[in-house]
Amino acid sequence: MDKRLELLQRLLDANGGKMNGKFLIAVAVVAVIVVVGFIAFRLILVEMILSLRDSR
User: Fold this and answer.
1) Membrane-spanning regions, if any (predicted)?
2) Considering its fold, how many domains does the chain have in total?
3) Are the beta carbons of 19 and 12 closer than 8 angstroms?
4) How far apart are the first and last CA of the chain?
């Protein structure tokens, strides 16, 4: 977790310390895509396991 904060601090320093709206939106969009992808992956995995169990 500490490395993530350090990376974020470096990004902020490179950006002049200002959090512009486009940067925040980009970070939020990436976070949402990652979360949705993870949830979809879990659902597909559970569906596959259940279908394999039913086929026996």
Assistant:
1) 23-46
2) 1
3) yes
4) 43
Could you report the per-residue pLDDT of 1-56, keeping only the tens digit for each? 688 778 777 776 766 656 677 778 888 899 999 999 999 999 999 999 999 988 87
Q: What is the pTM of this model?
A: 0.54
Residue 56 in domain = yes
Do residues 15 and 23 touch, judged by C-beta distance below 8 A?
A: yes
d(CA 44, CA 27): 26
Question: Is residue 15 included in any domain, yes or no?
Answer: no
Range of the domain at 45: 20-56
